[in-house]
Design a protein that fits this description.
Elements (H helix, E strand, L loop, with lengths): L14 H33 L3 H9 L1 H22 L3 H37 L6 H24 L2 H31 L4 H33 L8 H9 L1
Helix pairs in contact: 1-2, 1-3, 1-4, 1-5, 2-4, 3-4, 4-7, 5-6, 5-7, 6-7, 6-8
Length: 240
């Protein structure tokens, strides 16, 4: 559970303002849930060689794009109507930035879906699917935990996500090296193996965006921007 001191978003004199902030957070979580589902389905489509699921996942990206536009518009209206300050302004600005991360996650899911469609047509690659499933599960967990950290304004959970991102980077690098070695040893499947490589890269980027959301959660909870800060400094901020 988040610390009491992390729960900085309380009630306002204006009930309408409360409703607007609640709606903003709800819309963000709804968009996050859809993106989480998109990533899951894209991975499933590729691993199961399901071209139909991949195509549906690709088409659903338009819904994610519309939700991004709607959320941006709502956030701008809140700023214009309420002129929020301090903690409320941090919330609204952070939502605008986190929405961009969610949209980019959706774009990466669409890329994975496109690779799944191509591989369903050309035949599966001989290597890389175990790594995709493993890194995919790790990244899916990061997305889920990032959304949960936002919902509960849990800076400690956000910190854990940031630490997990380094693990995903290491897993991606190890998988990429193994796949590259395989392609050098057997050049007959380079095209399909490159598609798998692009999928692994897309998953690594999704992990980066989940980490970005975690950084914004810490900013909302603690009032300090920890982007580009050493992990030791971020740990100090969260521990305050």
């Amino acid at each position: 559970m988040p610390n009491k001191k992390d729960d900085v978003y309380g009630d306002h004199i204006s009930e309408k303002f409360n409703d607007e902030l609640t709606e903003l957070k709800t819309q963000f979580l709804n968009m996050g849930g859809l993106v989480e589902s998109q990533v899951e389905h894209a991975i499933q489509a590729l691993v199961d060689n399901d071209g139909q699921l991949a195509e549906q996942t690709r088409l659903n990206d338009k819904i994610v794009d519309k939700m991004e536009r709607d959320l941006d518009e709502e956030a701008i209206l809140v700023i214009a109507r309420r002129q929020p300050t301090a903690r409320d302004l941090r919330l609204v600005i952070s939502v605008i930035k986190m929405v961009a991360d969610l949209e980019r996650m959706g774009d990466e899911a669409k890329k994975i879906a496109k690779m799944a469609i191509k591989l369903s047509e050309e035949g599966q690659a001989p290597r890389g699917y175990i790594e995709i499933r493993h890194i995919g599960n790790h990244v899916m967990s990061m997305i889920h935990d990032a959304l949960d950290a936002f919902a509960r304004l849990d800076s400690e959970q956000a910190l854990r996500i940031m630490k997990e991102d380094k693990q995903v980077d290491e897993e991606y690098q190890a998988a990429a090296r193994a796949l590259l070695t395989f392609m050098m040893e057997d050049t007959r499947n380079i095209s399909r193996c490159m598609m798998v490589m692009w999928v692994l890269r897309a998953l690594e980027r999704i992990g980066d965006h989940a980490c970005n959301i975690a950084e914004h959660v810490i900013f909302m909870a603690k009032g300090e921007d920890v982007r580009h800060s050493p992990m030791e400094e971020t740990e100090k901020v969260v521990g305050r």
